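Sample entry (392 residues):
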Amino acid sequence: MIKSVKSTFVLVSICAVIAVMLALTNYITAPIIIKNENAAANDALLEVLPDGGDFEKLDISTFTLPSTVTDAYSAKNGGYVFKLTTTGYSSGFVIMCGINADGTVSGAKCLSSTETLGFEKTYGKELVGKNSESIETVDTISGATKTTAAYRSAVKDALNSAIILGGGSVDIRTEEEILLDNLSSALPSAEGKFSKLFITEVLEGIDAVYTADNGMGSVCVVGEDFIGVDSEINVISDVSAEMAENISSQLKNLFASKATEISIADYDGLPSALLSASKTESGNYILDLKGAGYGINGGNEYHPASGEYIYICVSMTKDGKIIDCLTVSEEETDGIGSVCADEKFYGQFVGKTEENYGDIDAISGATITTDGYKTAILRAFQSVKILEGGQG
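Predicted structure, serialized as C-alpha cells:
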C-alpha cells in the first residue's frame, strides 16, 4: 500500500514538472511563433505588393465589398492587398492579390486550391498591370475556362474593392443581380421572383419575356429597356402608346398560343433523337430532343451507351428558323461540359437556321459536348422538314 501511494506521488510529481516545463516552453516560444507567423504573412503580402510595407489589417465589415473578399490590408504606399476565396472548378480557391495606389494589379498569387489543371499557379502573372477595365481583355485559358475565369473575376473584385476602400463608387453586383434589379424595378409587385418564359411564337422587337412567379404580370426585355406588364397584359412602364400597344398585342398572342401534340410514330424517317413534337395554331413547332454528350459513345448515333444525354427543347417556325432554345437537363462534366446549361451558350441558337446554326462559340474544353448539342439542333431542322412533308 505504501509503495503504491509512493509510486502515485512520484508519477504525479513527474507530470506536474512536465506541465510546468511545457508551460514555460510555450511562454518562451509563443511570441517567437507569432512573430514568425506575422513575418510569413508580411512576406506573402509583400510578394503581391512589393512596394508596400507597414501593412495594416482593415475592418472590412464597415464596407460593402464583393463576397469573395475575406481579408484586406492597407499599405504605406497607398496600395491594398486582398485575400479572396472563390470557386473555380471546385470550391476553396484562395487568392492573394495586391493593388497599386494607381488602381492596377501589382501581383496575384494562388494560396490554395483543389483545381486539377494547375493553371491557377501561374495565371496571376497574366493579370499584373491590369485595371478594372483592361482586366476584361485578358483571355481565359482554353481547357481551364472555369478556373481562369474565376481567378480573373476574383482579381476584378479586388480592383473594385480598392476603389471602394479609397472612397470611390463601383457597381459590384453580379449579372444575375443586375438582371433581377431591372426586372423588379419594372414590376415591383412581382416581389423579386421571376421565371424566363420559353417562347413559342415569333416576337418582333422583344428579346425576352420574364413572368412573375406570383402571377402579377411579366416584364419584356426590349434592347436595354425593361418594360413591365400587369396581369391584365397592360403595359405599366413609361413608353409610347405605339410601343405599349405593340407589346400588349404580341403578349396576348403569345399567352393565348396553344400547341397540339404530334404523333411522331406516324412519320417515317424522323431522327431517333426526336423524343416528342407539338405544333402551335400558328404553325410553329416545339421539339424535345436528346443530344449525345460526353458520356455517349458513338457520337451522332444516339445510342444509350452510358445513359447520359443532353435534353433540349427547341421552338421553330415551319420554314426552319429557331424561335427559342433551352437546355432542359444534362449530365456533363461539372464546370466543363455543363456549360451547355448556361443561357449564354444555348441562347446562341435563337434566330439560327440550318444554314448558320453552326456559327456559335463552342464550349472551351468541351468539344464533344458542343458537337453533340449542335447535332441535336441539326436533328431539329431535319425533323421540321419531315413534319412539314419534305425530306429531312
